[in-house]
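sanity check this fold:
=====
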Amino acid sequence: MRMKRWISSSLRTKLLALFIVLTTIPLMTVGMISYQKSYHSVASHSKASTMLQADMLGTNIDNLFIDTERLLELSNNPEVIHFLLSQSETYKEAKDILRTFSLYRDTYKYESVLNISLINLYGKGISERRGIFQSNTNPLRNQHFQTLAENPDSVLRIPSAQMNSLDQIDGFTYEDRGVISIMAAVKQKITHEVIGFITVDLDDSFIKTFCDQVKIGKTGFFYILDQHNDPIFVSPIGNDNRNIIQNTPLPFPDQSSRDGYVLRTGGQPRFIVHTASIATGWTIIGMAPLQEIVAEANSIRQLIILSVVLSIVFAITLHYLLTKRLTRPIQLLQHKMRLTASGYLEAKVKPVGTDEIADLGQSFNIMVEKIKELLEQSIRKQQQLQKAELRTLQAQINPHFLYNTLDSIIWMAEAGKNDGVIQLVKALSDLFRISLNKGRDWVMIRTELAHANSYLVIQQMRYRDILEYRIEIDPELLDYPILNMTLQPLIENALYHGIKNKRGKGLIVIGGYLELSSVILTVTDNGIGIPTDRLALLRQQLEQPLQSEEEEPAEGGFGLQNVHQRLRLYFGSEYGVDLESIAGAGTTIFVRIPKNRGN
């Protein structure tokens, strides 16, 4: 209903709606059809390309293992069988076996084979790298040899991820590379009894290189699962890929199948392809975010959206040209009036022509100028009023402070403490030099702290037995601006109304910290504190306008209210002074001022 009223509100709106409908609906229909076709085309192409890469890796793995497992024929060699059956060996027998190893290498060019080793059930063995050796452990303690002893016709293919130190039967480790160990049982020809085991170690670098370098999209990757669906090769670019695998449960396919699909469970959709290595029973899986696979289709979608937007812009432009001379002047004047009503007084109308609308626009401009002049006069008067009130508040502070300071000087002079009087007068001189501040209302926090320190030095000389103080301000706060004479009245209040009425030593601590866009300064004393009812009264007085001298607030309220009103005049109602106190324990005064505000 609201949309209908908006469309029928003016002729220009009706034309705009008509142009948009006639332009965008046909284009969006064609765009949706094009996007669907491009999406399916790009997805099919990506699936075929990724599947081809996975098949290539599976074929390479199969060829490598089929070719390498020819070395298992060594288990049928009479010299090998004799070596495994005999309790002793000769140098010639060992040399003949190693020569046989070398013959196989020269014949089949096994560049990926790192080592060939044989071992019998009693731990006697021979390998290319160590020659003849005697194992210190029973070979059947090796879980893989134990499996072969129970299944003599099996061939095991064990990657590095599933090997441990006990699996290295000849004591040799490959610290700088990964290996895949092919293991098989050696059987006696007549009885087919297991007499030993043969192990061929392969360099797995070509599989790792494929998993590390071949990507699907930008962040997709390949990994390999063994017969038990446990990951054995994953790109080592961090634990991110392993976390993705763990958090993306797959419906594990038949290990002899190959397919590709989109998995939409567990977070963002992912594109999955899988194929199998027939020789090893391993599964090669490729995984990538679906968004990356169909990135080209998304580009087409963005192009379609851009075309629709451009069509809308074209319709609006055409609509503008057609209606400009009919309704534009009235709408422009209406718009400027609304801006003026919202408070923007810089809105001006440029009259065109000499008709009634142009005359109305000229009158509108004159009215706005008159309103601006009246507002500027009001603002100037308000600023002058605030400045006058501020100067009055400042004048109220200075005599109040001077009375107390001169009282301290008189007391020390009467006591005959000349050195103390000199020190006190010097501190008073520094105090007034800083407080005058060449007539400026602003100082840096470091200057205000120096002023407070001079005041505390004077008061500590007077109240040496009851007053201690500390200034604990983060150096980061020292260069922020603050109103002059902000802290001294608060310190004076803490001394006269908190510590002076307490037995024993009193302590005043000046602190500060940053809080979001504000600077918070604190004046804390361990004096007698403020009772709950009186604290509520003081907080209520802080929210009231400053009273005259004849109507001075209750004890302890004048300095607080004075500082609070000064801060509010300059910074606004969200800044000023706040109190927290516990009767008998002390009081903390918080001063909140804006951060990074220039003077």
Confidence is low (pLDDT under 50) at residues 548-554. The first strand starts at residue 113 and ends at 120. The first helix runs from residue 2 to 7. Residues 39 and 163 are 44 Å apart (CA to CA).
